[in-house]
Every structure is written in structure tokens, then in C-alpha cells.
Amino acid sequence: MTTQLFVHEEVASAVRDGHPVVALESTILAHGLPHPRNLDVARRLEQVVRDGGAVPATIAVLDGRPVIGLAAPELERVCEPGAGLDKLSLRDLGPAVGLGRSGATTVAGTSALAAAAGIGVFATGGLGGVHLGAAQTWDVSADLGVLAKVPTVVVCSGVKSVLDIAATLEVLETSSVPVLGYRTDEFPAFYLRSSGHPVGWRVDDAKKAAAVITAHRAYSDSGVLLANPIPEESEMDRELHDRLLAGGLAKLHEDGVQGRDVTPVLLEHFHTASAGASIDANEALVLDNAKLAAEVAAALAVRS
After folding, report:
1. For residue 22, what is the domain's CATH number?
2. Three-state SS for 115?
3. What's the CA gap between 102 and 93, in Å, rounded?
4. Considering 41, 127, 215, 288, which has the largest number of Cβ atoms within 10 A of its Cβ?
5. Averaged pLDDT score across all residues of the chain
6. How many domains does the chain have?
7. Is 251 marked active-site?
């Protein structure tokens, strides 16, 4: 797969010279946010990373070629309404490349491509996890399996509350993936600052996070999850959240939605039923995660 990567020169140069680089996914742009807001967020994410002293590398597959670090026209293409981009997890990269397709990469797909390009830090919104009822359906996100074997630091705001958070944390533990709470002792639940579940370890600044990540890499090839709660001022009202969640779960059941379609349908319900409040929260948390990821990437570069 590495021979088929196209790495933007700015990104390739930064990786080669040991400068900080932060990978960014494209699924949130192509499938998670409406146009033109998605393009505005894409540009702001890259600027936040630059402001933090790192080089942004937004990742997607275009016409069968994995691109690491989208140029401006490519970023616009990914954000264009009706672009028809597939949603690409790790299992989908081979078919998409082999068949010359175009797609936006998920956490799993982005993590794998970032690692192949030598990028060790990745900022996203939320991680996939174990779905409710997985004991019967076996519906577990590939994100967890990829984190178990790819040494990427994933900076995110935990997982969405529609998932089985306790089971998700158990799978991460079984996979030897350290879960670090950034300035928190509790695992965040995306729109909410706390899920009520504790994290194993806490770090209060980027330097301490970098120290933990560096030490972990000496003993394991698994990734590290840095859980950064949504900014306090952007947290969704819990009563509104619970009402939206109940309505979303009912919709999933009524419509028989399963598998990879669950998250898009649920997000759309949140966006529509909250009159855009969930989009505001999503934007705030992913921008904050990009900022933190840049700080961590810079701290890791100093240690290397």
C-alpha cells in the first residue's frame, strides 16, 4: 500500500525532517457536515494545525490513489455536495484503490494511511466503538481493531453515547490501547464532557501526553487514545442530548438501520432535530482536538 501513496511535498518534507504533522480525516467533511460548512471547517482545521506549529495532512482516496495532504482543489472536491465519495474504512482501501474509486476515510482508514506515510498523530471528532446489542450482532467498529495494531495517536472526544461505552473501553483495554484523559478523569461522550466512565490515566498538558506516548511506543505497536472533552462552553445541554438520543434510537429501530448506516442516520437525526445545535458542537470539538493534536505532535517532535 505504501507504494501507492501520494504524499503532498509539504507533508513528505515535514515527515522526512522530523517536523510535527497532524493527520485529518475526510469522512467528517464528505459525510458528517453539510456544504458549504464542511469546506469552511476543513480549512479552519488545517489552519488550527498550522497555528499550533504543525503541518496538516487531510487524507482521502481520489481516483484510486490515497492522497496524504489534500491540495486546495482536492479539499474542495471532497467537500462538494453530490461528490459521491465512498466511506472507506481499512477493509475498503484495497477495493477502492484497486477499482480506481474515490472515497473519504474513516478513523480506521485514516489511521492506517497516516501510519503508512509516517505520520503518528491524528485528530478527529469521535472514535467508533462497540454498538449496543453487539453480543447478538457482532457490530464493533473497525476503528478499535486498527488502533490495536497501528501506532497512531488518535485525539478525539471519546465516542458517541449511542454506543456501548463500557464495552468499548473493555475492548481498548484488551487490545492494550492506553486511554488518556486530557485534563479529565472521565471518558468523554462526544457531545457531552463525561460519559460517567473513568479513564485509566490522566495527562494535563501536551508534554506529559508526549512522554506517555513515547514510553508506550517502546513497549507496544498499538495506538494511543487521547480523550479530549468537548470545550465546556460548547457542550450540548444534557436534557436536549438525552431527548435527541432517545428519538434517534427509536428511529434506528423503526427503520431497521444496522451496521455502517447507524452513525450517519443518527447524526442526521441529531442535526435535524436539534436545529443545528449538534453541528455547532461537532465543529467546536473537532477544532479543539486539532489544536491539541498539533501541540502533542510538536511535543513529540522535540522528544525525537
Report:
1. 3.40.1790.10
2. helix
3. 10
4. 127
5. 94
6. 1
7. no
| Residues whose CB is less than 8 angstroms from the CB of residue 12 and which lie 6 or more positions away in sequence, other chains included | 69, 117
pLDDT digit string (tens) for 263-299?
778 878 988 999 989 999 999 999 999 999 999 999 9
Q: Is 160 annotated as catalytic?
A: yes
Structural domain boundaries, residue 23: 2-303
Whole-angstrom Cα distance, residue 212 to residue 178? 9
Q: Which residues contact 295 (CB under 8 A, 6 or more apart)?
A: 52, 206
Please pick, among 160, 186, 235, 295, the residue that the annotation labels catalytic: 160
Specify which of 103-107, 157-161, 244-248 reaches the highest per-range mean pLDDT.
Answer: 103-107
Q: Residue 296 corresponds to which cell in the numbers above?
A: 502533542
Cβ contacts of 137 within 8 Å, gap of 6 or more: 131, 258
* pTM score, whole prediction: 0.95
